[in-house]
Amino acid sequence: xxxxxxxxxxxxxxxxxxxxxxxxxxxxxxxxxxxxxxxxxxxxxxxxxxxxxxxxxxxxxxxxxxxxxxxxxxxxxxxxxxxxxxxxxxxxxxxxxxxxxxxxxxxxxxxxxxxxxxxxxxxxxxxxxxxxxxxxxxxxxxxxxxxxxxxxxxxxxxxxxxxxxxxxxxxxxxxxxxxxxxxxxxxxxxxxxxxxxxxxxxxxxxxxxxxxxxxxxxxxxxxxxxxxxxxxxxxxxxxxxxxxxxxxxxxxxxxxxxxxxxxxxxxxxxxxxxxxxxxxxxxxxxxxxxxxxxxxxxxxxxxxxxxxxxxxxxxxxxxxxxxxxxxxxxxxxxxxxxxxxxxxxxxxxxxxxxxxxxxxxxxxxxxxxxxxxxxxxxxxxxxxxxxxxxxxxxxxxxxxxxxxxxxxxxxxxxxxxxxxxxxxxxxxxxxxxxxxxxxxxxxxxxxxxxxxxxxxxxxxxxxxxxxxxxxxxxxxxxxxxxxxxxxxxxxxxxxxxxxxxxxxxxxxxxxxxxxxxxxxxxxxxxxxxxxxxxxxxxxxxxxxxxxxxxxxxx
Length: 554
Fold this sequence. Notes:
With 554 residues, this protein is α/β, with parallel strands linked by helices. It is built from 16 helices and 20 strands.
């Protein structure tokens, strides 16, 4: 009977579909784990393919490549080094499963299938996988390990079955995306499972950006007494070594190891935005980004995130003034670029405005200027950025925030164009908080400068689209503090009018915001992707009909 076991948690950053590269990542981590004396290395859920692989797993030839890669990796474990617990989609006859595979002694020594397939929010695993049977433990170097896979930890059945069938330690591979408050939720849930089972628990999570999801890692381990005995850093690849010994009561105890404190709320949001943008650009092989620098808060923060993610040399700002652009806005855009050290060019949209005015004059005869001419300005800017992107290669970075996208305060084919919207899930009030936080902090791993990166005037002046003389956002919208609170109630909390009014909002304002939220659905369907930060991001986890008669709450 073994009394000691060293388990390495490999918090790696795979790329969906990049099977060879992902296997190399696993192989390199195993080499480090071997050098540090590990008996077993545990990888995140579906680490071989990256998570979530979505409809790739419906392709038989994709699964052929996965199986060949896993069998080749299994053969490498004949070297006497650490066993591997890796996640991969796996076929069992004509069924496809989300699987954890134990590779040891040169072979696939055991396979366990995920039981509880999530089908809510951003998850739709029931679309592509079949649930497995309730599992028993697997034997690793003489120790019986229970392997619940991600969602299997969120309910009691799987872990109860593992405990009753003799598991000694729980090892949980995960692909758990970041959102505000998620880390605490995971730990609290793990504490419940440890309390119920009496077993220590190791939780390994993926890190990195994948389309609109950001995985924060933050892998951890709990002792059988529910004490946090190990904690990996968030938002970075890391190999966390844990060393376990069997006690006299047959309960496994973890020796002292590293416990890195998780980041606070603003730091975690900023880190998620940086990582999400960095990986989106890198994994899709863009040389850099180009964005409109308007002199406003959104573009200033987006540029700061881009420089922190990519470095100043890969960020290109463009100021596109019109006759309505205040001199202060041009000055603020220039100061933003100077503080960040990134390139800034100026391209006036006045010739485009004049050309459209001449072109449309006959068709618009007898009509006064209105929002049509304002939208032409926004679309001229969008065309300008897309032209520069096409000519020189950088991806257009959209700078709109969640408040604007919620109520349609954005122009389709104008400021909504782009390859990635880094602030898509960030409310306007949070934009200001993040800008102030970044001015006072240098995030871990940031490629941008220390000190102030957002001009002070940008933080205090009234936000405006500058599409007509004297325009401000509050000409059209409630104050952002009120608007954001109402939007959170409607989007994240699904509250009704009476509950929102009880928070101090006028019923007619709540109804107006609901109407704007409802009528802007068609715009959001055509908006670029952006990193998920909140509990309910626009996209796959909030699906409302465009054609929808429920447009009033009163």
